[in-house]
Specification:
This protein is α/β, with parallel strands linked by helices. The chain contains nine helices and 17 strands. It has helices at about 15-20, 70, 95-105, 160-170, 205-210, 225-235, 250, 275-280, 300-310; strands at about 1-10, 35, 40, 55-60, 80, 85-90, 110-115, 130-135, 140-145, 145-150, 195, 215-220, 240-245, 260-265, 280-295, 315-330, 330-340. A seven-stranded mixed beta sheet has the order 13-12-11-14-15-17-16. A hairpin with a 2-residue loop joins strand 16 (about 315-330) and strand 17 (about 330-340).
């Protein structure tokens, strides 16, 4: 039977499935199908699918009976999938235990269940977890052809941002970067761009950038995250294009003065405090991906004003994209400004 489906490349399948599942758009009456090099995910409401996805009508099979957590409970539980782990957010211990048991008894390929015990906190942006099932908090996550190993108790990682990371990664290599060499000669010039992630974590931006040919530097204050970044570079066969540095980026910036063709600033609550360092690292023609969280009445204005204050008049500042990533809290939006700095 032909039904509306989101059509994506197979390597983007898990990330796409997560986004559609979060929006409750997957039609569980039909099988997810791979055919002729494409993956088809049946959806219940094609008009509600985010615009970045292609929706087509395709013949798929009706799903055979498969036990899902909701079949074992009297309600529809909320959870996220990250590799073979399920992440829940429940204050009631009995309800959390019931959801965990249902997830394990269902047909989901999950062996670890973690319940959020705290908000993201501290300089390293980690949270506490209650481990309800499984051996530990380390997981292997795949998105858009990249593989990431990480420990959720030791590093920050959000599977919900997979689509946003892919949006940015697709821009890498889309135009010819400038050709000047780094003055100190610290790093040889790779074929492609030079990209600098100021808060790199385990590499969800760095790794796909490097796979697209960029020479990348990733900086983070979390030593464990940097260890995972190095391991993820090895797993994805891009270690020759990735430099991982454990430090405050404000200390590293002078070593990479006038270096970057592309900068990622994904620290949305306080990225403005690092704009002076961003301007130091930016080359003659540099695109900055600046993440912010602001009130819905003016989500982009504060970030744009802060960037202009830091970069002008040394640079001409052009906002190329004003992009809403997601709703963060009531009346607050997580947004991204793609800004070009030209000296």
């Amino acid at each position: 039977m032909e039904v509306p489906c989101v059509r994506v490349e197979p390597e983007a399948g898990e990330a796409t499935r997560s986004v559609l599942a979060e929006a409750d758009l997957i039609d569980d009456d039909y099988e997810i199908t791979v055919e002729d090099g494409w993956l088809y995910v049946p959806v219940t409401d094609p008009d509600a699918v985010p615009s970045e996805y292609a929706v087509v009508h395709h013949a798929v099979s009706e799903r055979e009976t498969q036990t899902i957590p909701a079949d074992l409970l009297e309600f529809e539980p909320s959870y996220e999938r990250l590799g073979e782990a399920a992440l829940i957010d429940e204050d009631d211990e009995e309800r959390a235990r019931a959801i965990a048991d249902a997830i394990l008894e269902s047909d989901l390929p999950v062996g670890t269940v973690l319940n959020k015990k705290s908000k993201v906190k501290g300089e390293t942006r980690v949270r506490d977890w209650d481990r309800l099932a499984g051996e530990d908090t380390e997981v292997v996550h795949r998105e858009y052809g990249c593989e990431f190993v990480l420990d959720l108790a030791e590093v920050y990682f959000s599977p919900r941002l997979a689509t946003e990371r892919h949006r940015v990664a697709e821009q890498v290599g889309s135009e010819e970067p400038r050709s000047s060499e780094h003055a100190s000669g610290r790093r040889p010039r790779a074929t492609g761009e030079r990209a600098f992630d100021m808060f790199a974590g385990v590499g969800p931006f760095v790794i796909p950038f490097a796979k697209r040919g960029a020479d990348c530097v990733g900086v983070d204050v979390n030593e464990t995250a940097i260890d995972y970044l190095r391991e993820n570079a090895r797993r994805n066969d891009v270690e020759d294009r990735v430099t991982a540095i454990c430090a405050d980026v404000r200390e590293v910036a002078p070593e990479y003065e006038d270096w970057a063709d592309r900068l990622v600033m994904n620290l949305p609550h306080s990225a403005d405090a690092f704009l002076e360092s961003a301007v130091t690292v930016a080359g003659d023609d540099c695109v900055v991906h600046y993440y912010d969280i602001q009130h819905e009445d003016d989500p982009f204005g504060p970030g744009e004003r802060a960037i202009r204050e830091a970069a002008e008049p040394e640079y001409d500042v052009t906002v190329e994209t004003r992009h809403t990533v997601r709703s963060y809290a009531p009346h607050e939006l997580n947004v991204c400004l793609d800004v070009r700095l030209e000296r």
